[in-house]
From TrEMBL:
Superkingdom classification of source: Bacteria
UniProt keyword list: Membrane, Transmembrane, Transmembrane helix
Topology of the protein relative to the lipid bilayer: Multi-pass membrane protein
Protein name, entry field: Steroid 5-alpha reductase C-terminal domain-containing protein
Organism: Candidatus Nomurabacteria bacterium RIFCSPLOWO2_01_FULL_36_10b
């Protein structure tokens, strides 16, 4: 039952992040508050954020697969690759990509969505997921939490 709830959580979280992002894009077009003058430098910076996010995402998936994860459920906590530095590198990857989109669109609202999503993840989503992981993996996950920070 716990494994099923973890899999649900893993599938639900990106959808929630996507919802917040789409909401931010809609509000950007309703109330277009800009970050700066739109320059080629800003666009390049945005694409760099997106590329960093993609790299972290792919790197995280690679090490998650090495931990024998199937259908969103792992047989052990992932403790290698990017998971050595952050317990939730995929969430960080999503935030980098959304930040890049916000910079490319020159949207203060989308950048604020990144901040709000970070706070929401930190206060609600991640603690709930970690509670499930502690129930699933017990002391192994508690030790992992002591060694690795939630965010970098």
């Amino acid at each position: 039952m716990i494994k099923y709830r973890i899999a649900q959580h893993v599938a639900f979280s990106p959808l929630l992040i996507l919802f917040f992002t789409l909401l931010g894009i809609i509000f950007h077009f309703i109330i277009p508050i800009t970050l700066t003058t739109h320059t080629l430098r800003a666009i390049v910076a945005g694409f760099i954020f997106i590329a960093i996010g993609q790299a972290i995402f792919w790197y995280s998936n690679k090490y998650r697969a090495l931990a024998y994860c199937k259908d969103g459920v792992c047989l052990q906590p992932v403790g290698s690759g990017p998971y050595r530095y952050s317990r939730h590198p995929k969430y960080g990857a999503y935030l980098f990509m959304i930040m890049g989109l916000g910079v490319i669109m020159n949207s203060l609202i989308l950048v604020l969505v990144v901040c709000a999503t970070f706070i929401f993840l930190t206060l609600f989503i991640i603690p709930h997921l970690e509670g499930l992981l502690i129930r699933e993996f017990g002391d192994t996950y508690i030790e992992y939490k002591k060694k690795v920070p939630m965010w970098i």
